[in-house]
Amino acid sequence: MARTTRELRIRRHSRLRKKLSGTATHPRVAVSRTNKHISAQIIDDTAGLTLAAASSVEAGFKDVSGGNIAGAVAVANLLAQRAVAAGVSTVVFDRGGYKYHGRVAAFADALRAGGLEF
Q1: Which CATH architecture has domain 5-113?
Q2: pTM, whole model, 2 decimals?
Q3: Fewer beta carbons under 10 A from the terminal one: N or C of the chain?
């Protein structure tokens, strides 16, 4: 039986999540992307809290597409600002089962440039 692309990504993400968890000192940055948008949350899994979030569907991103690298960098810069304001400096990167390539890699690099360590 052939698996869909979505099912395969979910299987990869579940394998990744077995080893990866966010704590209060090292919260998890969970990235989610579609063809048109990208979004991410900084999550403390032990407390079940979202500390900061950013998405390309927010009102400030009307001129920027989340479907390209420039949009991913813009969303990552906003998330990095919100994370620093929330007192987060070190995180664990959860790529969500996506390849660490293209928009996801650019997102991670922009987070690092914004002051987050991982």
Answers
A1: 2-Layer Sandwich (3.30)
A2: 0.91
A3: N
Q: What is the CA radius of gyration of the chain?
A: 14
Full pLDDT tens readout for the chain, 118 residues: 679 999 999 999 999 999 988 888 999 999 999 999 999 999 999 999 999 999 999 998 888 888 999 999 999 999 999 999 999 999 999 999 999 999 999 999 999 999 999 9
What's the rounded Cα separation, in Å, for the pair 82 and 74?
13
DSSP string, the chain: -PPPHHHHHHHHHHHHHHH----SSS-EEEEEE-SS-EEEEEEETTTTEEEEEEETTSGGGSSS-TTSHHHHHHHHHHHHHHHHHTT--B-EEE-TTS-SSTHHHHHHHHHHHTT-B-
Q: What residue segments make up the domains of the chain, in order of their start?
A: 5-113
